[in-house]
TrEMBL record:
Lineage: Eukaryota, Metazoa, Ecdysozoa, Arthropoda, Hexapoda
Residues with site note (Transition state stabilizer): H228
Name by which UniProt lists this protein: Phosphoglycerate mutase
Reaction equations catalysed: (2R)-2-phosphoglycerate = (2R)-3-phosphoglycerate; (2R)-3-phospho-glyceroyl phosphate = (2R)-2,3-bisphosphoglycerate + H(+)
Family, per entry: Belongs to the phosphoglycerate mutase family. BPG-dependent PGAM subfamily.
Any GO MF annotation of the entry: phosphatase activity
Organism per entry: Frankliniella fusca
Keywords: Glycolysis, Isomerase
Length: 293
């Protein structure tokens, strides 16, 4: 198969269009509103993605990254709500992908039980982990802004290619991360990152998409991905061919499923679509954007 056609400069700079609603049109049929990236091609496939529910560290406004925080009570409720949205949309799946981190795994577990598909194959990979926040791990976001300045912290959080300072061996959570048996099954301690930007996160996420997820989609499998904000933004950037400048402005809300319809070349047919009304999505996006302010 040849390389996908490259978007025009105007397409690359356009902010991603989104659509909203509680139902999802069936695969292999064209919605009358699906009319952006690949208008000449009919949708052949669909991929559904969900950001995990709120974690205990999200609740405390702490930088989390590769630390294995659990879901909060609110996060578990969000997972149940996510499952309900998928049920109401009539979506079912053949295979699932998630990270090695509990907050994503537990969100997926709730979803699969609630939609009545608890025994689906689940692939777990470190490549879908959240970005590593380095030395910021475990620190309160407001306190970090007071220490380093809000502008510098915002650069670390939202820039495309500027990572936070790396985590050092004397850091409180260094050992919990580098000695986590979930990670050391696949990575040596030296291979576990010490810090990451969106760019370096994308560099590990995209090979997983190309080598594992994309072939399954081309086989006709209905794929569900439940993972983290930064790794999902990496996937969105790649799938929708967004520019660096556009992707850093995208905020994905917790536990609201969204999906892409794709043509035979896995190019997007129409915009990213959320399974919630526009006001709910906007409110939850603003909540994500305001964290740490």
């Amino acid at each position: 198969m040849g390389s996908p056609a490259q978007p025009s400069a105007a397409q690359r700079e356009r902010h991603p269009r989104c659509q909203y609603g509680s139902s999802a049109p069936a695969r292999r049929t064209c919605s009358s509103t699906a009319s952006t990236a690949s208008t000449a091609m009919a949708p052949q496939y669909r991929v559904v993605m969900v950001r995990h529910g709120e974690s205990e560290w999200n609740l405390q406004n702490l930088f989390c990254g590769w630390y294995d925080a659990k879901l909060s009570d609110i996060g578990r409720e969000e997972a149940y709500a996510s499952a309900k949205m998928l049920q109401e949309a009539g979506l079912e799946f053949d295979v699932c992908h998630t990270s090695l981190l509990s907050r994503a795994n537990d969100t997926l577990d709730v979803i699969l039980r609630e939609i009545g598909q608890p025994n689906l194959p689940v692939y777990k990979s470190w490549r879908l982990n959240e970005r590593h926040y380095g030395a910021l791990t475990g620190f309160n976001k407001l306190q970090t802004a007071q220490k380093y300045g809000a502008e510098q912290v915002q650069i670390w959080r939202r820039s495309y290619d500027i990572p936070p300072p790396p985590i050092e061996e004397d850091h409180k959570y260094y050992s919990a991360i580098v000695n986590n048996p979930k990670f050391t099954q696949d990575l040596s301690k030296d291979e576990i990152p010490r810090t990451e930007s969106l760019k370096t996160t994308l560099q590990r996420v995209i090979p997983y998409w190309e080598d594992v997820i994309a072939p399954q989609i081309r086989q006709g499998k209905r794929v569900l991905i439940v993972t983290h904000g930064t790794s999902l933004r990496g996937l969105v950037k790649h799938v929708q061919q967004m520019s660096d400048e556009v992707i850093v402005k995208l905020n994905l809300p917790n536990a609201i499923p969204f999906y892409y319809d794709l043509d035979e070349n896995l190019q997007t047919v129409g915009p990213l679509r959320f399974l919630a009304d526009e006001e709910t999505v906007r409110r939850e996006m603003e909540k994500v954007a305001s964290i740490g302010k």
